[in-house]
Amino acid sequence: MNPNLLQTPIDYLKGIGPQRADILRKEIGVHTYGDLLNFFPNRYLDKTRFYKISQLEKNSSDVQVIGKIVHLRTVEQKKGKRLVADFIDDTGKMELVWFRGQKWIRENLKLNTPYVIFGKTSWFNGLFSMPHPEMELLEDYKKNLRTAMQPVYPSTEKLGKTGITNRVISRCIQQLFVESGGKFIDPLPEELRQELHLLPKAEALFNAHFPKDQELLAKAEFRLKFEELFYIQLQLLMKNLIRKKKIKGFPFEEVGTYFSDFYENHLPFELTSAQKRVIKEIRQDLGSGAQMNRLLQGDVGSGKTIVALMSVLLALDNGFQACIMAPTEILAIQHFNGISELVGELGISVRLLTGSTRTSERKEIHAALENGELNLLIGTHALLEEKVKFQNLGLAIIDEQHRFGVAQRARLWKKNHLPPHVLVMTATPIPRTLAMSLYGDLDVSVIDELPPGRKEIRTVHRYDSNRLKVFRFIRDEIKKGRQVYIVYPLIQESEALDYKDLMDGYESIAREFPTPEFQISIVHGQMKPADKDYEMDRFVKGETQIMVATTVIEVGVNVPNASVMIIESAERFGLSQLHQLRGRVGRGAEQSYCILMTGHKLSNDSKTRLETMVRTADGFEIAEVDLKLRGPGDLMGTQQSGILNLKIADIVKDNDTLKTARYYALQLLKEDPNLGLEKNRVVKFTYSQLVKEKNIWNYIS
């Protein structure tokens, strides 16, 4: 087959023409023959049986009937009109009904000519009727390419209104197979196809659109899903290889005084074996001469900060500066306070730069950065400003990296003549399938154990009707000297409403826990940063026992004495957010509790989220459930949801296929990193086409 045939604009396919082509482009993104070929059905109908009108049952299944239209009429109704046809066979009569597209249908229908109709029936006025049936002249039906399993393609209202029905799309795909002779280049090497018993590409495509039976459909889908995921993994792995070859990094060859002194004399606790393993992986990267790009995943409280600090000490030992960038001022301040305390006796210069830093202080920081006196700068987005110039930035650490866009992260790269080493950290566990697909070009480290002595947080779900018992429990915990968070949801679209919820909640808490016996802090997004910090500070110092807040406290607040987290309207939170909030407690040696408060009306998804929270504290298990509930697009947020423009595979459902695809892509690159072998010529060609199209290349930095 001519490989350029698939690049042909869709306008030129017989049966389409310019008008239909324009609708296909706008509605479903079909621009070329190749796009149409990869526009797969989302379900299949079994059309092995024909019914007689007398055999129809009062159920909602799809049925297929052969008969004739003997009469057409327009019926007035409250709003507009409907077109009704009397349809008969040798056993009885039924009605066909159209509520839209009536002019076109009336002009094109043939009376007293045998048709095959297909659709759902309903029982109305003592007759069966079928609204908007699929119709085909019996004569055409017999001629057409036909399988027992009929494909049903995704559609839109506009497609339906303009007559581009499921049958039209199916016919166009048949035409495409005719024009191409059913021959397509197979982008997978013969050896790989044989090893995995994969159908040839042409056969797989044909059976995805026109399956002969269930078994062939399953084989066709596996083959096409594997290929799609294989090339995504190949692109990510190649990008990693190219980065390591082309992008030189500063070699950190020394493990010097700062690192050794801290490890031997100032480390406040024994590192877990997971922390040791991750530090070793980072040390290998930093000493390799290639630029490090590593994603560090660790659940809330797993000790990522100490790993980040020890990486910073390696940079300092090698004569470089480092920076840590956090998404919020609160978290940046916390990193600054925690790290300053840990390195207090090492003689390291650490400064904090945020939006609130005074101008005089900024000038000092800028000068100290440029002359090399400042070793470590911790801050927010303020670090990205043009004015912030380092003398010799060697390591950039980004915390909660999903809060920063690709362009923002790229600005850190330009802070030195060679890009600094980059360590991105997240406490939002990313399901393995998603990590492989979105961060497959990064090296991933996981801290998968909590420090010893941490007790698992007890999580319970309580309805609003149990509120008095919950208040009693809060009182008991405060008597023991503990502190309590009470968190209210925050939904951007209705800030005024959320603020009202929060203030109502605050007033009822204040009534229940009156001064002077109890002191309450309140923190929300509409407060000035200085007021917010003042309230936070009172809670951190133990001057207040209860913190009433919106989700501004989600990331990073560390109060070891706080042992109770109450989440109001918990059904309004996503799973990962609930997990993050729960991680604000359980930081001390005492038993901690998380109480999820809801009303009685809960959707199935809400029930699943709450049950998952009560059942497990494993962030990775929670992330997998979250992925199943919300899908990859939602989970990654708008910045990254467009990356995986998958045609047939689903990274949640096809998890095993994804792992297999990554394994084989890795094996192929181990044997042939430049794709130079003759047997991989087709892989090299396909890969170069994909890179040209930049379908995922551009997005992942």
From TrEMBL:
Its EC number is 5.6.2.4. Residues 285-447 form the Helicase ATP-binding domain. Keywords: ATP-binding, DNA damage, DNA recombination, DNA repair, DNA-binding, Helicase, Hydrolase, Isomerase, Nucleotide-binding. The keyword DNA damage applies. GO terms for molecular function: DNA helicase activity; hydrolase activity. The keyword Cytoplasm does not apply. It holds the Pfam family Helicase_C. It catalyses: Couples ATP hydrolysis with the unwinding of duplex DNA by translocating in the 3'-5' direction; ATP + H2O = ADP + phosphate + H(+). Residues 466-633 form the Helicase C-terminal domain. InterPro entries: ATP-dep_DNA_helicase_RecG (IPR004609), DEAD/DEAH_box_helicase_dom (IPR011545), Helicase_ATP-bd (IPR014001), Helicase_C-like (IPR001650), NA-bd_OB-fold (IPR012340), P-loop_NTPase (IPR027417), RecG/Mfd (IPR047112), RecG_dom3_C (IPR045562). Belongs to the helicase family. RecG subfamily. Plays a critical role in recombination and DNA repair. Helps process Holliday junction intermediates to mature products by catalyzing branch migration. Has replication fork regression activity, unwinds stalled or blocked replication forks to make a HJ that can be resolved. Has a DNA unwinding activity characteristic of a DNA helicase with 3'-5' polarity. This is ATP-dependent DNA helicase RecG. It comes from Salinimicrobium oceani. The lineage of its organism: Bacteria, Pseudomonadati, Bacteroidota, Flavobacteriia, Flavobacteriales. The gene is recG.
